[in-house]
Structures are given as C-alpha cells and as structure tokens.
Fold Polyphosphate kinase.
Amino acid sequence: MDDDQISLDAGIVTDFDDDYDELALASDGSPLPDQRYLDRELSWLAFNQRVLELAEDPSVPVLERANFLAIFASNLDEFFMVRVAGLKRRIATGLAVPTNNGRRPSDVLEDISITAHRLQERHARAYQDLVKPALDDAGVHIVDWASLDDDDRARLRDVFSQQIFPVLMPLAVDPAHPFPYISGLSLNLSVRVRNAKTGREEFARVKVPPVLGRFIRVDPAESVGDVRFLPLEDLIANHLGDLFAGMEVIEHHVFRVTRNEDVEVEEDETENLIQALEKELLRRRFGPPIRLEITDDMDAVTLDLIVRELDITEQEVYRLPAPLDLGGLFDLTRIERPDLKYPKHVPTTAVQLLPPEPNTKADVFKAISRGDVLVHHPYESFATSVQAFLEQAAADPDVLAIKQTLYRTSGDSPIVEALIDAAEAGKQVLALVEIKARFDEQANITWARKLEKAGVHVVYGLVGLKTHCKLALVVRQEKGRLRHYSHIGTGNYNPKTSRIYEDLGLLTADDQVGKDLTRLFNELSGYAIEKKFRRLLVAPLHLRKGLLKLIAKEEANALAGKPSGIRIKVNSIVDEAIIDGLYRASQAGVPIDIWVRGICGLKPGQPGLSETIRVRSILGRYLEHSRVFSFVNDGDPQVYIGSADMMHRNLDRRVEALVRLVDPAHLREIEGLFQLAMSDGTASWSLDADGTWTRRDHDADGAPLVDMQDELMIQISRRKRPGTTR
C-alpha cells in the first residue's frame, strides 16, 4: 500500500493552530456539532471494502480481480502492522486519547476488530465463490493435492525433493527447543507428530520459504492450454513425512502472524540518523504479534498452544478457509494471458514535449521555456517527461546544478542514475533522500549511500519532519545568465509506479517558481528559515493556513452573492481544521466537491452543516494519487497541485509543497477532470453522512456508466499539438 494511506496519528490534534477553538465555530458563531467527523479507522476499512468490491465485480477481467484480492490483503496487512499496532501500543502505555468524536480508543479497537473480521471473511468468500470459479472458467486453476493424479504427484514430488526440501527448516518445540520466533507475515505450518516408539506427541513449526514462489505450476512448462497451480504450503504439507522421518504426522494446519512493524526514531536524541534507523529496522522484526490468521480446520490443541506462546487474545484470531495469505495472488499477474487483464494502454507523450520529427529526441528545456507543461501520468509518459527532463539535465553541459527530493523510487531507478551521472560529470547535485519513508527505509538507505559514493550531496531533511514533497530544480546557464527549470509533482520519482499511479506534475521555467524552490531547498539542506513563497504553499508552516484562507474567501464570496466553489481531490481528508472550514463554507452556501480515494472524515449532506458538500471516490486499474485544490475565487480561479493530503502528519510533521497553476489551459484541464469525476454519468462511489459508501456503476436502465480512467485514456491520446493535425 501506498504510504499516503496510513499514519500513526489518532484522536484530535490541538497544536495545529493557536486559534483552533475559534475555528471550530459555525458561520453564525455557534459551536459546530460534536459528532461531525467520521471515524478514520473505519473509513479506511471502508476504502479497502471498495477495493474488495472491484474483486467481486464480474465485469472486471478475472486476473485483475485476483490482483484486487491481493491488493486488499496487502492493504490490510499494512493497516494492522501500523494503524492497529499503533493504537494498541498507545492503549497499553496509557497514551491513547479519545478520538475527535469523543470515542474511547478501546471502543474504536473493538469496532476495528468486528469490521476487519467481517471483511476478511468476505474476502475469503470472494476468492472461493467468485474469483476462483471465474479463473477455472478461464483455464487458470488453483488446485489442491487431492485433485492431482499419480503422474502429477510424481512430477511434483521431484520438484519438492530437488527445489524445496533442501530449503525447509522444521523446528521442534520441546524442553530442549523453545517455541520458535514466528516472523511477521510469514506463512507457517503447525505440525503435531507422534513418536511411534514412545507414543509421545510433539509440536513442530515449518516455515513456508518466502524466497520460493507462492504457487507451484503443476503442468510441465512446455504444456499448452489450461494451467494449474498448487499452493506451496499444500505441496509441503503433503510431504511432511520426509521432514519428520520415523514420526507419525497427526495434524497439520496453516497459520500466519502479523506483528507491529512500525518504526520510531527519536531524531533529537541521535547524532546519526541512518545508524539509529538501521537499529530500529532490526528491532521492527521482533515487534509484538497483533493478528493471528489460522485455517478454519485448526484443532483446539494446536490453537491453544499458538495463542499461549504468542500471547494473542481471542479477538486477534482470524479463522479463515484455506488458502491463507491471498496476497500471493499477485503472482498470477505474471501469467501471459492478456485476454484476462485490462487492455494494454501505452502512455502518450505530452504534446508540448513531442520531438520535432519522428525518431528524434525532444529538447525538453526548449519545450518548457515556451510555457508551463502539465503532465498527467500514466496517461502521459513519465519516461518522456520527468525522466527525460532529469536525464537531459544530467547530460547537458550548460546545466550547473540539480536539486531533487527522493521519497520512494524503484530498485533500478533511472532517476538516481541520472543524478549519479550528473555528479560524475562535475555538476553540483543535491539529493534529499527521505530515509524514513515507511517500509522503504532500507532501500532508501542503500540509495543514499550509493549517491554519496558518486559525489552527490545527500541530505536527510529537517529533524522531526519527513520530506514528502516531490521537487526537482535544474539550474542552467543560458546566454550569460542562470535560468531555473522546475518540476513539482504529486507522485514519487518512481518510473515503475508511474505506470499504475495517477499523478500530475508541473514542468516550468517560471523564474518565481525557481526562486521559491531555491529557497525551499536551502531550508531543507541548510539552516535557512523561509517564511514566504510566491507560487508555493509549503507545510508545515503555511499550507494549512493558506488553504483555510482560500476556503474562508469562498465563504465570504458566497455570503456576498459572488461566484464561489471549492473542489478538492485527495487520497485522505481527516484534518479537523480543514473539515471545519469546509463545513462553514457549506453553511454559507459554497458548492463543494470532494474527490477522495481513501479515508474521509467529513460527513457530507448533513442539513445545516454540509448540505452543499458532495463526496465521491473512484477506484480502478490506476491508483488515484494526485492532490488538487481548486477555488472559484469570484471568477479568478486559484488552483494548486501537490503532494499533501489533508492529514495531521502531512500538515504538521512533513515538508509538503503545493504549486499554483496559472496557465488557462491547465485550469480548464483541472476543471474538466472534476466535471468528469463528479458527473452522475461516471462510475463512482458516493459517501453518505453516516459513512456508508454506495457504488454506482450502471444507470437506471442497466447500462454501464462511464469509466473515468478509460475515458481519460481516450481523451488524452487524441490530443494534438496546437496548430497541427498530429
């Protein structure tokens, strides 16, 4: 799951604005209602339910449905490892506080457990009753050992003996062998055996090796037609006699443990952040268990032993049908069956960045110098825009300096390679690597060290803050003067995720943006404290206040009878000050559209509070990831894009940046996106005031509604360079 979906902050935060109590009043000065927020944890679970609904949808290609089942499982794993783990830790240490609706943390935890149990059971049923039969119909079979014939079993026995048996490590539990450590998210077999001579029963654990494929192909590689796969744990379970020679295998069952894997580093108490983080990453492996998943055939004796040894409560046990760990279904996406996947989409090159002639390269700097370029990934290519921008900067002898933030990137990143090439060419290169990016910490530490060895100036941002903004600045010498070329994006500099994450990015040669980024990078790498920016809104000092001022201006315009309106697209919105500002604007009559992928703490459509607010969510083949903030402003639109969600962590504990769009064509493009997303003719989920999300994908006559992402593929692929017929 993307890092923008989960954080540790819970309950109400009161330090984001000195005058928050005043802000919590309605337009007429009366207090806003106490129960005006939706619970963020349950809202996140509702988001994951929407993912599950895509897996249940028969109109979605079946391998994509399997992929959505895997995404659901992976999302829920991370939710438990971070969100639930953090809540349990705060309850145990007495640090938990009531939520922003006054609910006790223990009650929230109970609601999470009830909802998570229901969703995991629904998830398992979706696989067994819906997706697996559809895969069978398509000739992709996930089988069990009992269904195999003698030839199949003989062939798989050879596979087991040669490729799997040497890797297995059975661990006995007896007075000489204590109960083994069970690593987080590992798949395990619990085995009870009997000594044939003494009659004594023993317990052992066999870990399913994560280095091997989750599913073993049953048929020979050269066979054609239908394909069959056997879960790895099933193959191991049916060869336990080889592992426990001379013993009688009585029972075997599959189980899986989720542990607290969040990382906390007290930065102000350490001189070396990397060393402290590496120690914490090592400690992460041994976090306390917070969830136990077991197959529904596990016997009471085995369950009692595991529960006792792991110190797990009954509430934390999830009894499910086999197979566990449906995240393994990601492996099926490698099957070469394009007919069972979404039709392939090839991104286009943004028309402003098209080369002058076929089979030639565009001059990115010349294109940007003609005017701002707004790129929309993955509909428009990351490789021919952002990546080309940085690669050309690295190779251009007129480029003197490159400064960039790196939050997440891919393992073979051409972005990082471009920075290395630039440094080796003698350019000044600054890379701000956020080594605290959750679950990418070790990868980012590795990148940081590689960059440093190449001569890149590597910094880690400001103490106590994560650097989440997506910024690149190129300083180029042109005709005796220095010119700034900038990129501000909503997504990571990751070529791989750019193919599946929907994001926006602005490439500009605007001198004011360049100066803003220069000041911001100085603040991030040195000791400058910058308070004013021209085209940027920057967190943690100014972003929330800036947005609240823009919201308040729409409220004032509505009360004065002037044109008003607010449109916001985010991954999550839970910040109380922002939500209350939107409530006040709604009370003044401002039309407000909120387009949110994940968590929404705002209650839309409540009489007297939020009657003018609509909330929609769109999920599909691409992960909606961009953040957009649009204000009518009495006919002079103010539109910003950037990396910030409306969450406490983004606004208070991260360096975030929004950039204002000024090109009229870009403002029209953003307006068109919102019109399409909020249209009653577009497939989406709508949020009710009670937190219920309702899916609408067909009209009253049963005809399918417009798929927004498919529609954008068509629209953007048809764009032509101004003044041409291309």
Residues 603 and 690 are 7 Å apart (CA to CA). The chain is about 35% helix and 20% strand. The domain at 351-531 is CATH 3.30.870.10 (Endonuclease; Chain A). The chain has three domains: 123-340, 351-531, 537-717.
